[in-house]
Amino acid sequence: MLTYIVRRLIQTVPVIFGVILVVFLIMQMVPGDPAVLIAGDGASEETVQAIRHDLGLDRPLPLQYIQYVLDVFRGDLGTSYRSDHPVMDEIMLRLPTTIQLALASIVITIVLGMIAGIVSATRQHSAADRLIMLVALLGISLPSFWLGMMLISFFSVKYHLLPVTGWGSLEHVILPAITLGASGAAIVARMTRSSMLDVIHQDYIRTARAKGLKNRLIVYKHALKNALIPVITVIGLQFGTLLGGTVLVESVFAINGLGRLIVDAIRMRDLPVVQGGVLVASVIFVFVNLGVDLLYRYFNKRIEMD
């Protein structure tokens, strides 16, 4: 197990290199000059060139990329062009909010998705099954920003039950978490249903029923545990999707998280902040995938850590 974990951690190194390279190249194609944005529209060409030199933007792109990679592996994500603060400080200020939102959303994804999937599988072809699958299809199809605005319109504007924007209390978490977790819950529900249907038609389940075991015991002790492997995969992937989805949701609900920080940085061409934010989100996603692989081993001892 330890050897497998070490090997997986080593494999993350080229992934990090790739993420840095892709984001770096994309930001170079975004229109606008960071030096001009920092200096202002009325600045002279000499001032702009001086800022470019101070930021290292006058050097060839390969040298800029190599220098940034070296700084990253020293733990330095650079300095924000906009605020002149260390990028790591700005990220760590916003990251806890995004993590809280993502965790609340993944709880909704898991709880609602698995309950709906189990009910749908155990009542196959019933009215409940059709209704759950219809709602799941809607959940997958609806854009998160549209769902967020509809929730705001209904629960905040019309009935004044929950706050529109802000962060800091349970009431502030509910609407963004539902908005972010709805599509994930729909996907988990469909996967849970499919996986449960495959398992409950296996011979050992029929044997358990023939022995007279209660249906609830068969479903939750025998069938569910063996049906969880593909569901865990989907949940792990959904966590990465949630981290990316916070960009839109945090903008809709005016939440000062990592996603909104990245959006503001892209608008200002604050390259170090964009690269640092995407890099941190990517590293989190890599470790989530590692955790998912370890959960495979927990739920199925026959799985080898190759």
From TrEMBL:
Principal location: membrane
Subcellular location: Cell membrane
Cross-referenced Pfam families: BPD_transp_1, BPD_transp_1_N
UniProt keyword annotation of Manganese present: no
Keyword Transport tagged: yes
Membrane topology according to the record: Multi-pass membrane protein
InterPro entries per UniProt: BPD_transp_1_N (IPR045621), MetI-like (IPR000515), MetI-like_sf (IPR035906), Opp2B (IPR050045)
Record domain ABC transmembrane type-1: where: 95-296
Membrane-spanning ranges: 12-30, 98-119, 131-157, 169-189, 227-253, 273-296
Keywords: Cell membrane, Ion transport, Membrane, Nickel, Nickel transport, Transmembrane, Transmembrane helix, Transport
Assembly description: The complex is composed of two ATP-binding proteins (NikD and NikE), two transmembrane proteins (NikB and NikC) and a solute-binding protein (NikA).
Family of the protein in this entry: Belongs to the binding-protein-dependent transport system permease family. OppBC subfamily.
Protein's name according to its UniProt entry: Nickel import system permease protein NikB
Organism for this UniProt entry: Paenibacillus xylanexedens
Lineage of producing organism: Bacteria, Bacillati, Bacillota, Bacilli, Bacillales
